[in-house]
Every structure is written in structure tokens, then in C-alpha cells.
Amino acid sequence: MGLTIFNSVEATQAFGENWAADLAGGEIFALHGVLGSGKTQLVKGLARGLGYRGDVTSPTFTIIHEYLGGRLPLYHLDLYRMQSEQDAINIDIEEYLPSQGVTVVEWPDRIPSLLPPDARHWELEVVSLTERLIRPRERAD
Ligand SMILES: Nc1ncnc2c1ncn2[C@@H]1O[C@H](COP(=O)(O)OP(=O)(O)OP(=O)(O)O)[C@@H](O)[C@H]1O
Ligand SMILES: [Mg+2]
């Protein structure tokens, strides 16, 4: 798949929502992209598409949010504040990689060694105030 441009927050969320239909569990997605590039908005849509009804926010300080009650459990990780592999070990991140559910990781390049080889990497970019872009990318090392 090539690149897709989203003209609004709703379009970004809708992409995530449609994405959910293709998932069977065990998938790991790495979402790269600068602050505000729409990673969490995409996860919002994904959670909704899986049937989760609660709030979705960036787990920047808590590292992991679990969204349960939908068709598959969704694990939302944000490694922004992770400094070292030891940090990741301390909070048992590997428990979520892989899981029976779907795992999405924001800021995966904070600890590249954490992600298994079959993780699927995507890049989000800021195009303008209201536009974002997504494209698949090679695994970052
Ligand atoms: N087309 C768009 N898609 C998604 N977000 C958009 C779009 N246009 C503007 N925005 C704004 O960009 C911001 C995206 O925030 P979001 O929390 O999803 O970013 P993020 O990539 O998760 O950042 P962080 O690395 O800080 O967690 C929101 O404030 C949203 O309103
Ligand atoms: Mg975020």
C-alpha cells in the first residue's frame, strides 16, 4: 500500500477504524512520527473499530493503556519517555509483544530492539495544520 493523506482528524480516525476489520489478533504495529503527527488519533479509530467504547489517550506517562471489551484486546504503548532497555524490562513491556490481541507502539525507535521482526512499521507525517500522511516504512534500526 502506498501513502494516504488524511484531511481531518475524522479521516485519520476513520482509517484506523477500517483497519480494525482486518485484524485477527497477534499483530504489532509500530507508529513512527513526530509529536502531533496523529498516532494517537489513529489508535482512537482503531479502538473504536474493534468495538472499544472508552476513552483513548496517549499513554505518555503510564507507558501502556489496555483497551478491553472490544472484539480483541488492544494494547497501546507509548515509549516516548523510555530511556533504556532496562526501563522496558522494568515494566514488563515484553508481555505485550506479541499478545493475543493487537499491540500498537508509539515512539518505537526509543527502543528498537524491543519490537519483534514481524512488527509492521508505519510513518505518520505532518503535511499542514489539518493534514496528516501515513505510509508504510521499513523497520528502523
Ligand atoms: N488530519 C489530522 N489527523 C490527525 N490529527 C490531526 C489532523 N489535523 C490536525 N490534527 C491534530 O494533530 C494532533 C494529533 O495528535 P495525536 O495525539 O494524535 O499525535 P501523536 O502523534 O500521538 O503525538 P504524540 O507523539 O505527542 O503522542 C491533534 O491535536 C489533532 O487535533
Ligand atoms: Mg500519541
Description:
The protein has 141 residues and is α/β, with parallel strands linked by helices. The protein has a single domain (25-136), classed as Rossmann fold, CATH 3.40.50.300. It is 21% helix and 24% strand. A seven-stranded mixed sheet has the order 1-7-6-2-5-4-3, covered by helices on one side. Magnesium ion binds at residues 39-40, 58, 78, 106.
Distance between the termini: 22 Å
The CATH C-level name is Alpha Beta
Q: What's the CATH architecture name?
A: 3-Layer(aba) Sandwich
Number of helices: 3
Give a short summary of the structure.
Helix content is 21%, strand content 24%. It is built from three helices and seven strands; from the N terminus they run βαβαββαβββ.
Features:
binds adenosine-5'-triphosphate, alpha/beta, binds magnesium ion, seven-stranded mixed β-sheet, 21% helix
Q: Could you give the topology of this structure?
A:
Layout: E1 4-6, H1 9-20, E2 28-32, H2 39-49, E3 64-67, E4 74-78, H3 85-90, E5 102-106, E6 120-126, E7 132-136
Parallel strand pairs: 2-5, 2-6, 4-5
Antiparallel strand pairs: 1-7, 3-4, 6-7
Helix pairs in contact: 1-2
The structure holds adenosine-5'-triphosphate and magnesium ion (MG).
